[in-house]
Amino acid sequence: MERKKITRQRFLKYSIDAALLSCLFYKIGVHAEVFTIRNEQLSGNSGKGTGRNMTTPVKISEDFKSILAMKYSPVGFYFTENKPEGAGTVKNSGEWCIMPRVLAGAKGRTYAFEEKSLPSCAAFFLGYRDRLFLGAEYYLSHAPLAGSLCERFVKTPKLAKKYLEVKKYPVKSKGFAVFKPLEQFSEAEKSETVIFFGNPDQLSGLVYLLYFGAPLDDSRVVAGFASGCGSVVTLPLQYARKGMKKAVWGLHDISARANLPADLMTITMPFDLLVEIWKDIKKSFLITEKWNKIARRIARDNNETQGGKNKKNKFRDYHATDARYKKCNACH
Fold first, then answer.
1. Same domain assignment for residues 65 and 30
2. Residue 19 class from Cβ within 10 Å (0-12 exposed, 13-18 middle, 19+ buried)?
3. 279 class by beta-carbon count within 10 Å (0-12 exposed, 13-18 middle, 19+ buried)
4. 70 and 47 in one domain?
5. Do 301 and 318 lie in a common domain?
6. Per-residue pLDDT, 46
7. In this predicted model, what pLDDT tens digit does every residue of 304-323 receive, in sequence order?
8. In whole angstroms, what is the distance from residue 4 CA to residue 251 CA?
9. Contacts of 47 (CB under 8 A, 6+ apart)
10. Domain range spanning residue 274?
């Protein structure tokens, strides 16, 4: 009996030791995996054995569309001497606003505009012309022009004239102005700025991510009086070319909004700033349950507007799918 008792004690001891060793090896394995993943993130290469540089427009676009539950793609903007193959355009300057075309870029279509095909407003705000049109200061203010009602956007013609003088491009634009879905850019192509179309929830996510690394910068996101194309091209391009890390909250233009979905506004930023905040995604609030709750609401609303469950928006819940980002009680 004594011998059997000793044998049982040894068996229990060995079992406990084996369980402890198993737990230890498991933890070592998990920590090693996390360490490897973190290094891959910091180096911008999470592809295993592919040798592919993952800091690409395609990867950036996919990540933002997924975590923000976006149904519109980010749109890259740049100037080029040659019209991209297959790009749509406007055949004449009869269209008074290009913003519906820019939104079409967020749906997957590339558009390229040159000066002769642009309406006078867009030609001015994209930098092809140094003035809007004769009498524009009255049109923006309260004095009607022949055959056209004034917009009453500016208090006096004098103020409107001064505004138009300040907004002139210092260098005349040339070639084609291109609006292209970011995921269609090759690694060799470089967008000057990137435009996001989103609802209040999605833009709130972008704004907070922009301030994630700069909470004391009160002017990190700016908004101002501008036409629709001025808010997605003129202002953001000025900041980009000066090397300033600023994003523009836009599409406040009443005239442009009348022809676009009611819940959409824009945030546009330099491409380099976009890369910077993209690297912060998986360290930020965007991996928390608070954001996931909002993202699920966005995805649900997207499904309803697209006609039900057959067209589900692909939203990645990092808490549910990624062991690297387990829910932390200290954060929620």
1. no
2. exposed
3. middle
4. no
5. yes
6. 42
7. 766 544 444 454 554 444 44
8. 82
9. 54
10. 55-75+185-332
